[in-house]
Amino acid sequence: MSDERRLAVLRAIVQDYVRTSEPVGSKSLVERHHFGVSAATVRNDMAILEEEGLIHAPHTSAGRVPTDAGYRLFVDRLSAVKPMSGAERAAISRFLQGAVDLDDVVDRTVRLLASLTHQVAVVQYPSLTRSSVRHIELVPMARDRLMVILIANTGRIEQRIVEARGRLDDEAGTALVARIRSEVLAEAAGRSFPEASARLQSLPERFEPADRDLVRLVLRTLDDALAEEREERVVLAGTSNLARFGSDFPLTIAPVLEALEEHVVLLKLFGRLRPGQGTGVAVTIGHEHEHEGLAGASVVSAAYGTGSELVAGLGVLGPTRMDYPTAMATVRAVAHYVSELLES
Amino acid sequence: MSDERRLAVLRAIVQDYVRTSEPVGSKSLVERHHFGVSAATVRNDMAILEEEGLIHAPHTSAGRVPTDAGYRLFVDRLSAVKPMSGAERAAISRFLQGAVDLDDVVDRTVRLLASLTHQVAVVQYPSLTRSSVRHIELVPMARDRLMVILIANTGRIEQRIVEARGRLDDEAGTALVARIRSEVLAEAAGRSFPEASARLQSLPERFEPADRDLVRLVLRTLDDALAEEREERVVLAGTSNLARFGSDFPLTIAPVLEALEEHVVLLKLFGRLRPGQGTGVAVTIGHEHEHEGLAGASVVSAAYGTGSELVAGLGVLGPTRMDYPTAMATVRAVAHYVSELLES
DNA sequence: CTTGGCACTCGCATCGTGAGAGTGCCAGCG
DNA sequence: CGCTGGCACTCTCACGATGCGAGTGCCAAG
Q1: CA neighbor of B165 nearest in space, from B205, B212, B202, B200
Q2: Which of A103, A240, A253 sits opposite B258 (nearest CB)?
């Protein structure tokens, strides 16, 4: 009834399978690890693990492979997040420091994750709803066009063009634009986007009826940008790692690539992230994914962002047969350093 | 000595091979196409085509497959660009019309290309050097920080943050920023980026020596943004189509995915595009690519942009065994409609 | 509960075979 | 001089049989 040893066996199976990518049998298991027992005993344990649905034999005469449930147990209870060396941490930090703007930060982050983990890396652009307004600018473009630029505290920029009814390039138009700009800024600057949007609801009333249309148009763009959150941008890197695994993936890689192209699928993954839950790193394994194409894949993800607010997600995707401890450590460290960088 | 018939045979080989993806032999060739001659004659022609390096037999007893040179000849002289139906053209135009901003235009374009051709689609963001300055905005952010925003006539936005020596939030600082803004705008607005950069060289001299540092910093960001052109952004879609082809690709798809990740490689492809050269569509085939990973791939590309200036490239990438006439027609049509859209 | 032993089961790699597709060449014909 | 039909030859691929080895499950003994 040695529960403890059975779990140790499971851990060993996961580790060996991750290393070799071949089903692991009782014999090689006792050779590599020093349980105090013989192969036959381990076989008995393996039979029980199989009954519990934690491992599975591809065929009668092959070794065992962890099931999704087995990986789950491993991740939750059997693995310690591998600490990273100081050199690694320093390298991460240094590489990210070189970034010049937000695009560059995201770009460097995603490449870094991909090259450190040798998996597919995914980074979500900082979300607008969860960040705050740093600045709003109105730029007249033609006699009846106005460009509205939103700048978030994360450095993210969103722009829209609105068409006005009346002229904007005469004196009255210029003055109107200037007034809208200053009043909008007074209400919105420094506040979160949803909050700013709420406070601006009553703004049109402060203007002359004839001018309210334009004010509403400007506000509308702000709400539009917010509503388009569902089209949140996501950046990928390391997709060639999928192919590198070759037939490592249970099925072909086509469905995985398809899933990666549907950014909505990825955003859902990040949507559930909650700060500080345990290690702050979330793992979804195989069939736990809603999307069928990801049935053979696992995702290790974490939230990152400015200060105490977590504004977006990042992570890596690989086969369920993945080095979870290392991936989790890397994702956590990268999320940490990106967050640190964004503070400044 | 019937040169003409030999070329017709080559054309038929390319067409059949594209359809079936299997080496084509003399027998099936005369069955499907009505040459006026027998299989034996075609065999003689094929022997000559092979001597000329246009086709190649995988093994002795297999059919023939076009070589890169064979495809090249086919593309240059044997294929007419397939006209698109009015319905198709209308669908393309309608789909693109729905875009709300530049990001959306690029996004829609790349998805459209991928779904129409069932290949990997690549779209380059409009280039700064070849577009012109619509607006430049300076936004004070903290007591000594200034955000510089460049807006191109294509709608593209670039932003940088500069750190000033002196204070910007007092009266003198605000006035200085306002003056820099208006003088820069006066010189740069409406001009091409390189031209604007040149004209602004002498701007610092017009300011007090103490203020020149800040002016130079602002100008520097403009040059920096220009210099970073090498990091030009590129967007992909349809990578799962690579896998869909399965083993269609001569080698595995890993090197292709790697090449796609190195955006520099893709930008080089677009760098050579010249407007109005023939159909305006360029094709690179197999080993013509500099990058080895693309040895089994072909790229069909075209330039697009505002008005008479061509500011960026787009295209599709697939196996050398690709339906060139259709791909060329689609790329040309999409480039046309995107350009039209960007005008407005 | 553990252990060593033993019979059993399969998957996989290897090998050999046969069929089929395609070619190259040749001699004859217009 | 080019085209045609015929024929022998080559080579790949698919199919099936075989043997090996890894690994298991079970059992009886410690």
Answers
A1: B212
A2: A240
CA of B247 to C1' of D8 (A): 34
B160 sits in which H/E element = strand B157-163
| Domain coordinates in residue numbering, chain B | 2-67, 86-125+233-343, 130-229
**Which of A53-62, A225-234, A322-331, B315-324 bottoms out in mean pLDDT, i.e. has the lowest?**
A225-234
A57 touches strand D (CB under 7 A): yes
Helix, strand, coil content of chain A in percent (nearest 5): 55, 20, 30
B130-229 CATH choice from 1.20.1290.10, 3.30.450.40, 3.30.390.60, 3.60.21.10: 3.30.390.60
Write b or e for each residue in B205-226: b if 16 or more Cβ atoms lie within 10 A of its Cβ, otherwise e: eebeeebeebbebbbebbeebb
Partners of B253 on chain A (C-beta within 8 Å) are 243
Q: Diameter of chain A by CA atoms?
A: 92
CB of residue A37 closer than 7 A to nucleic acid strand C? yes
Q: What is the reported pLDDT for A308?
A: 59
Predicted confidence (pLDDT) per residue in A123-138, tens digit: 998 877 777 888 888 8
Topology at the third CATH level for domain A2-67: Arc Repressor Mutant, subunit A (1.10.10)
Q: What band does A142 get if pLDDT is binned at 50, 70 and 90?
A: confident
Residue B265 touches chain A, beta carbons under 8 Å: no
Q: Which residue has the tokens 């033609």?
A: A142
Q: Phi first, then psi: give them for residue B226, nearest 5 degrees.
A: -70, -45
Residue B316 or residue B245, greater confidence: B316
- CATH T-level fold of A86-125+233-343: Beta-Lactamase (3.30.450)
pLDDT of residue B322: 93
